[in-house]
Write a structure and sequence with these properties.
By secondary structure, the protein is an alpha/beta fold. The protein has helices at about 5-20, 20-30, 95-100, 135-145, 160-170, 210-215, 225, 230-235, 240-255, 270-275, 290-295, 300-305, 310-325, 325-335, 375, 395, 400-415; strands spanning about 50-55, 65-70, 80, 105-110, 155-160, 180, 220, 280-285, 355-360, 380-385. The chain has two domains: about 5-190 and about 340-415, Alpha/Beta hydrolase fold, catalytic domain (Rossmann fold), CATH 3.40.50.1820; about 210-330, no CATH class. It has an eight-stranded mixed β-sheet, sandwiched between helices. Helix 1 crosses helix 2 and helix 9 crosses helix 13 (about 310-325).
Length: about 425
């Protein structure tokens, strides 16, 4: 087992980042040197030198491409960063070096079905079982073990990477010693009611929210239902505007740059409440994702002014998704939280936990009650943070603030050797 560093080592490594915001900002946005970063498979002109990539057989049926930093010094504790949809390991480009400079070996994989971890495009009719939650946890466990780690200091997940990180911590707290969930709140487990034998359940029909949404005066549908359908991949992969512009519009639409994002708590899982969310979550019934996001395409001036997602950055994403399509990531919607996870009903997350969301993102509230109930899911919730001027892509939109919060959490929770 790789040796854990002491709390003092992490404190010494991280203190400068927290105490000196100007230095933290420079670390969060290291510019690449004049030479290309030839040690990575993508982003050679935009990933800072000091990050490398390689492919790792995770002994769970997948060879995952990873970006990593802090690999040169053996014995460092491991931090794993899990991206969401439609993202890549590249989404963590501003976190890798700052966390490595604080004393960690930082690993960001392209998850199953994404980027170089998908040797060929995934088809809708391929077996979706490998994308179940239990197998996604096994993917990450197999990866860190292949890299020589029996313990992980922290697993950090964003968007769909967040539920995977949560279940890593819930199922293997002996391995994953802390967890950070970004954008997606900590979610509870399936319900198996206590003392129900002598209390017959009332015959209340389950809410069919998709049917309710379709019946609204302005007919709507839930994006997750559409994303799980066979139509979604072709709609995105062969979008009339092209993959590059589709992604540009999608990232802009969900960011703090789109001024229509004014999130607030929703009262219930009902059509009228859900319909308060923007169209990227509650779509018009007659539109696919490509048409939905096209309406929010930023202007040329807005694109030129966007420093958190430059054209060079966007080209990394669009090049990979043009090659692979989107079905690998869409399979996460098809499988949801997995097959039947009721065996874990009531299981809490008992390692130190932290939540980070964007103050301008609807993901915080898209599951009514989840944000407010996280302290029931996590028995050791150390912090809940909403980052100002950040939408859904908060690690890219506000990297300095995110890095500071991550390092604060790691300083407070890293185990002594």
């Amino acid at each position: 087992m790789r040796k854990q560093v002491t709390r003092r080592w992490v404190l010494q490594g991280a203190t400068g980042l927290v105490a000196a915001p100007a230095w933290a900002a420079s670390l969060a946005k290291d510019e690449p040197g004049p030479a290309l970063n030839n040690s990575v498979l993508y982003g050679q002109s935009s990933l800072p030198v000091g990050i490398r990539s390689r492919r790792v057989d995770n002994n769970n049926g997948a060879t995952l491409h990873i970006l990593e930093a802090g690999f040169a010094s053996p014995g460092r504790p491991c931090v794993v960063l899990l991206h969401g949809f439609p993202e890549l390991a590249y989404s963590w480009r501003w976190q890798l070096l700052p966390l490595a400079r604080a004393g960690f070996h930082v690993i960001a994989p392209d998850l199953r079905g994404y980027g170089p971890s998908a040797p060929s495009p995934v088809a809708f009719h391929d077996d979706p079982a490998p994308y179940s939650m239990l197998n996604r946890v096994a993917d990450i466990l197999g990866l860190v073990r292949a890299l020589g780690y029996e313990k992980v200091a922290s697993v950090v997940g964003h968007d769909w990477g967040a539920p995977t990180a949560q279940w890593c911590a819930r199922l293997r707290p002996d391995v994953f010693q802390s967890v950070v969930s970004m954008s997606t709140p900590f979610l509870g487990t399936a319900s198996l009611p206590l003392r129900s034998a002598d209390k017959p359940r009332p015959g209340v029909a389950a809410t069919d929210v998709d049917k309710e949404l379709a019946a609204l005066p302005r007919p709507r549908k839930h994006y997750a239902t559409y994303s799980a359908s066979e139509a979604a991949n072709a709609d995105m992969w062969h979008a009339p505007q092209g993959v590059h512009d589709l992604l540009r519009a999608m990232y802009h639409f969900k960011s703090a740059d789109w001024k229509g994002n004014k999130p607030h708590p929703l009262k219930s899982w009902s059509a009228t409440e859900l319909a308060q969310m923007p169209e990227y979550y509650i779509m018009d019934l007659d539109k696919g994702i490509a048409a939905t996001v096209a309406a929010a395409m930023p202007s040329k001036a807005q694109i030129a002014a966007c420093q958190w997602m430059t054209e060079a950055d966007l080209t990394v994403y669009s090049t990979e998704f043009i090659r692979t399509g989107f079905q690998g990531g869409l399979n996460y919607y098809r499988m949801g939280m997995g097959l039947n996870l009721k065996a874990f009903a009531g299981r809490t997350i008992d390692v130190p936990a932290c939540y980070i969301g964007g103050a301008s993102e609807w993901a915080v509230y898209q599951t009514p009650g989840a944000f407010e109930g996280m302290n029931k899911v996590c028995t050791r919730l150390h912090g809940v943070h909403l980052v100002p001027d950040a939408g859904h892509s908060l690690a890219e939109e506000q990297p300095e603030a995110v890095n500071r919060l991550l390092l604060d959490f790691l300083r407070a929770t890293v185990a002594k050797s």
